[in-house]
Design goal:
- It contains one helix and three strands; from the N terminus they run E-E-E-H.
- It is α+β, with helices and mostly antiparallel strands and 79 residues long.
- It folds into two domains: 38 residues, no CATH class; 31 residues.
- The relative contact order is 0.09.
Length: 79
């Protein structure tokens, strides 16, 4: 992990197109601004982890649906 010291209104650059700026430091909170291209997802860690869990659960339930449909016997059209 790279550790940097920055003050309010100072920035760091990640790659060529992501800029993280320290907006405010107050007691034990730091406000940051992130300027990144729209195609780059930026989430708080707890939101990112919740999205990952939801994706894993959705994939598991989707796999279960596919598995159930593959094991059900084919029904003939009765007319």
């Amino acid at each position: 992990m790279l550790v940097l010291t920055r003050r309010a209104n100072q920035s760091i650059v990640i790659g060529h197109d992501i800029v993280v700026t320290i907006l405010d430091v107050h007691r034990d909170q730091v406000r940051i601004g992130i300027d990144a291209p729209r195609e780059v997802d930026v989430h708080r860690q707890e939101v990112f982890e919740a999205l990952e869990r939801a994706n894993v659960e959705a994939a598991a339930s989707g796999a279960q649906v596919l598995q159930n449909s593959a094991t059900e016997p084919q029904r003939k059209n009765e007319e």
